[in-house]
Specification:
It holds the Pfam family DUF4124. Helix content is 24%, strand content 28%. By secondary structure, the protein is of the alpha+beta class. The strands form two sheets. A four-stranded antiparallel sheet has the order 2-1-3-4, with no helix packed on it. Strands 5-6-7-8 form a four-stranded antiparallel sheet, with helices on one face.
Length: 165
């Protein structure tokens, strides 16, 4: 007899819960180009675009476009002006001041040339694990033996190549 009311209460609670399927998200762009996504809206000096966030049921089978937003169409001059205002907000920092980067770094590793500014990882990629490692006052030295020839590579306290012999 007590089972019926308890079951009815559980069914009422489960049936009354409405699933949250979609929500509006505001994309706020400041005059300096900084973009922020928020649920509360934008300040008066920011350009506001509304995006509908929708999380479809997994395996529903239908493809869904993500992050569709309502936005005005830019004129060609506006698009060109926005392209000219591109700002790099992050770049790779190897810890050695990026003295050797990109293609120059890859070619040096492939040709097994060691240059100042390379990292320990670069040296180990080029020459493999060292035969011997020594250290003094936070600085370290890798020793490589290749037949009768010995190579010595010195690193500073940040792990950057300072010299080679």
């Amino acid at each position: 007899m007590h089972q019926l009311p308890r079951t009815a209460i559980v069914m009422l609670l489960l049936g009354s819960a409405t699933p949250l399927l979609a929500s509006n998200v505001f994309r706020c762009q400041a005059p300096n180009g900084h973009v922020t996504y928020t649920l509360q809206g934008c300040t008066t000096d920011q350009q506001q675009d509304i995006q509908q966030a929708f999380n479809p049921t997994p395996s529903s089978g239908a493809p869904v476009t993500l992050g569709s937003k309502t936005r005005h169409r830019e004129s060609r001059s506006e698009a060109q002006n926005s392209l000219e205002k591109v700002t790099v907000v992050g770049q790779r920092d190897d810890g050695c001041g990026n003295r050797i980067v990109g293609r120059e770094r890859r070619e040096a590793v492939i040709k097994r040339h060691i240059r100042p500014g390379m990292t320990r990882a670069d040296v180990e990629s080029a020459l493999g694990a060292p035969d011997r490692v020594t250290g003094n006052n936070g600085r370290s030295r890798y020793l490589y033996r290749d037949g009768g020839r010995t190579r010595q590579i010195s690193f500073d306290e940040n792990g950057c190549v300072t010299e080679k012999r």
